[in-house]
């Protein structure tokens, strides 16, 4: 199935090196491309805040600033009150665009003198300072401009549009260097860039729009995508309607292993998520002290206690199971380690989460494993698996998830805003651009591991499990948070989840 440009993600260098070549093949000049970019931004302005409105456009020295200069002329022609605050234009296109603005008697104020009082006189601020490709920290001039803009935005409730990429945000990693414009809306050009889709990007980009500028088909012929977004149609393909003669044996038997004393809730949440995602049977293998608690919580869960000391007992308890999730409420006791050692050496398809991942980071037994393995770490767990720090993981989430996949030869989901999935066999990254801050609560990860485990047990292709599970979890979180993000509970996802797995 051929994907649209709205699903394909390319590195900044790919776009920078190929966009003019793609435009040339279609007879589009660089100046025309800049005109199209500015027109796309004007269309976004008119949809969000129609004229007349007071617009200040902050222009940098390069072609991003050139887009801003052209936008200034277009916006004034349709009735906006436009002020330009700019650095000296340096690129040829920016110089031409700046001259055209001045030739129409447009005033220009120096960027170095930008202050909050002046910003407060406007309704809309357009950030056309630096755009994509920032690879080092902002210098003092641009850092001051960014901080002044953010301060004014938050104090005076200004609406901010960033052109191509918020100034200060690294467009390949999603890291602020060290600060970035807090835009309400970002229009990016030609193709989506990875740094606009993960990490800190959600905070800085606001609503993200791709403007292909009429050259996307030609560009696509020149470059291979770096990653792809997970979309609803892909999820639906893997969740077809069930046959009328279905029975529970056709829909997989999942075992959740965990629920140490004091942490039974994690195993319950994972088990319920697996049931709501459609597993035919869900067993919970747990600590003797919590068996009664889990069994009383949900009658559909088959709960069995184990002291983990007997290999024969574990083999019997897991006989007939199609997949295992190890980790929800597991802890790091000797009991937990015995379970980990048994399962990592088994031939059962295995998903590790929570303390299952923490035990993995301290062991080397996984190197002998040949059976399928899925890992679902958050940045802290990823850091332990990589002998790194969470700040290093977040500095380049794409590099971290790739390294995890290659090191452990596993399908890996790096959780967080803009969750990433690495497949070491296909060597292709997936990005989930859905979700809600409502998911930032204890227990949400247990729900996700239950969803993924259920899909493994139901026989989804190995490479489809994490993309489908991540999308379902993210979108269920969005639906659950309709009445408010604060106070949404992981168990609130079960109703939306049931609807989403029955498209």
Question: How would you explain this protein's 3D organization?
Answer:
The protein has 503 residues and is α/β, with parallel strands linked by helices. The protein folds into two domains: 8-224, 3-Layer(aba) Sandwich (Rossmann fold); 232-500, Ribokinase (UDP-N-acetylmuramoyl-L-alanine:D-glutamate ligase, 3-Layer(aba) Sandwich). 42% of the residues lie in helices and 16% in strands. It is built from 20 helices and 18 strands. Strands 1-9-18-17-16-15-14-13-10-11-12 form an eleven-stranded mixed sheet, with helices on both faces. Strands 4-3-2-5-6-7-8 form a seven-stranded parallel sheet, covered by helices on one side. α1 crosses α8. The longest helix is centred in the N-terminal third of the chain and has 19 residues, at 30-48. It starts with 7 loop residues before the first strand and ends with a helix. The model has no long low-confidence stretch (mean pLDDT 95). Keywords: ATP-binding, Isomerase, Lyase, Metal-binding, Multifunctional enzyme, NAD, NADP, Nucleotide-binding, Potassium. (6S)-NADPHX binds at residues 63-67, 131-137, 142, 164, 266, 329, 378, 446. It comes from Pseudidiomarina insulisalsae. It holds the Pfam family YjeF_N.
Structural class based on helices, strands and sheet pairing = alpha/beta
Number of strands: 18
By DSSP (H or I, 4+ residues per run), the number of helices equals 20
Major sheet description: 11 strands, mixed
The largest sheet has its strands arranged as: 1-9-18-17-16-15-14-13-10-11-12
Helical coverage, percent range: 40-55%
Mean pLDDT: 95
Low-confidence stretches: none
Anisotropy-based shape: elongated
Name of the CATH class of the largest domain: Alpha Beta
Count of distinct structural domains: 2
Catalytic activity: (6S)-NADHX + ADP = AMP + phosphate + NADH + H(+); (6R)-NADHX = (6S)-NADHX; (6S)-NADPHX + ADP = AMP + phosphate + NADPH + H(+); (6R)-NADPHX = (6S)-NADPHX
Cofactor: Mg(2+); K(+)
EC number: 4.2.1.136, 5.1.99.6
Organism: Pseudidiomarina insulisalsae
């Amino acid at each position: 199935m051929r994907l649209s440009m709205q699903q394909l993600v390319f590195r900044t260098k790919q776009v920078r090196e190929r966009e003019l070549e793609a435009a040339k093949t279609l007879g589009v000049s660089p100046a025309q491309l800049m005109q199209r970019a500015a027109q796309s931004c004007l269309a976004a302005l008119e949809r969000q805040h129609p004229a007349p409105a007071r617009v200040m456009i902050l222009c940098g020295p390069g072609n991003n600033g050139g887009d801003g200069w052209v936008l200034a002329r277009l916006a004034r022609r349709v009735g906006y009150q436009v002020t330009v605050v700019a650095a000296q234009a340096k690129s040829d296109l920016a110089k031409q665009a700046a001259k055209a603005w001045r030739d129409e008697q447009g005033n220009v104020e120096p960027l170095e003198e930008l202050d909050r009082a002046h910003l407060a006189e406007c309704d809309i601020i357009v950030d056309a300072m630096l755009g994509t490709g920032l690879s080092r920290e902002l210098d003092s001039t641009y850092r001051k401009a960014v901080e002044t803009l953010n301060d004014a935005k938050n104090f005076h409730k200004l609406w901010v549009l960033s052109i191509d990429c918020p100034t200060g945000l690294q467009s390949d990693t999603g890291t602020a260097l060290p600060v970035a414009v807090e835009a309400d809306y970002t229009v990016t050009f030609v193709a989506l860039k990875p740094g606009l889709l993960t990490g800190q990007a959600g905070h800085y980009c606001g609503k993200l729009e791709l403007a292909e500028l009429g050259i996307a088909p030609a560009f696509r012929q020149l470059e291979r995508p770096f990653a792809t977004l997970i979309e609803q149609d892909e999820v639906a393909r893997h969740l077809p309607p069930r046959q009328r003669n279905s029975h529970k044996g056709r829909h997989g038997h999942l075992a959740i292993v965990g629920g140490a004393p004091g942490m039974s809730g994690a195993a319950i949440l994972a088990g319920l998520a697996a049931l709501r995602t459609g597993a035919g049977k869900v067993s919970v293998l747990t600590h003797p002290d919590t068996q009664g608690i889990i069994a009383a919580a949900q009658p559909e869960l088959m709960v069995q206690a184990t002291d983990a000391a007997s290999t024969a007992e574990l083999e019997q308890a897991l006989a007939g199971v199609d997949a295992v999730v190890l980790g929800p409420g597991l802890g790091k006791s000797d009991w937990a380690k015995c379970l980990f050692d048994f399962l990592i050496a088994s031939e059962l398809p295995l998903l590790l989460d929570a303390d299952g991942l923490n035990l993995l980071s301290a062991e080397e037994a996984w190197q002998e494993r040949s059976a399928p393995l899925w890992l679902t770490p958050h940045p802290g767990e990823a850091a332990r698996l990589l002998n790194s720090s969470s700040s290093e993981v977040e500095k380049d989430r794409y590099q971290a998830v790739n390294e995890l996949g290659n090191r452990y030869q596993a399908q890996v989901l790096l959780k967080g805003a803009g969750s990433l999935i690495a497949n070491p066999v296909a060597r292709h990254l997936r990005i989930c651009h859905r979700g809600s801050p409502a998911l930032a609560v204890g227990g949400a990860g247990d729900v996700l591991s239950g969803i993924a485990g259920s899909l493994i047990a139901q026989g989804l292709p190995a490479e489809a499990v994490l993309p489908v599970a991540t999308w379902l979890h993210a979108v269920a979180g969005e639906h659950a948070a309709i009445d408010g993000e604060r106070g949404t509970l992981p168990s609130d996802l079960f109703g939306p989840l049931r609807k989403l797995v029955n498209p």
